[in-house]
Amino acid sequence: MSSAAELSWFARHEIRLAWREWLAMMTAGRHGRKRGAIIGLIAFAAIMHLPAYAVIGRFAELQAPLDKSSLIVITATILLAWALMLSQAIESVTRVFYARADLDLIMSSPVVLANIFSVRIAAIALSVIAMALLLSTPFVDVLVIGGGIRWFAAYGVVVAIGLSAAAVAIAVTIVLFRLIGPGRTRLAAQILAAIVGAGFVIALQIAAILSYGTLSRFAVLTSDAAAAFAPDTGSMIWWPARAALGDGETLLLLLAGGLMLLGAVMAIFSARFADTAIRVSAHAAPSRQNSRAKTFRASSRQQALRRKEFVLLRRDPWLVSQTLMQLLYLVPPALMLWRSFSDSSTAIVLITPVIVMAAGQLSGGLAWLTISGEDAADLVATAPLPASRVIRAKIEVVLIAIGVTFAPLVAALVFASPLQAAITALGVAVASISATAIQLWFRVQARRSQFRRRQTSSRLATFAEAFSSIGWAATAALVLAIPVAAAITGLITAAILAATWKISPRRS
Amino acid sequence: MQTAERPSALQVRGLTKRFDRLAVDALDLTVRAGEFYALLGPNGAGKTTTLRMVAGLLRPDAGSVSVLGIDALSDPIAAKQIMAWVSDEPMIYDKLTPLEYLEFVAGLWGIDPAVSEPSAHDLLISLGLEPHLRERCEGFSRGMRQKVALAGALVHDPRLIILDEPLTGLDAVSARHVKGLLQQRVRGGCTVILTTHILEVAERMADRIGVIAAGRLVAEGTLAELRQQNGHNDTSLEDMFIALVDVEAAAA
Question: When you count CB atoms within 10 A of the terminal residue's CB, does the N or C end of chain B come out lower?
Answer without folding.
Answer: C
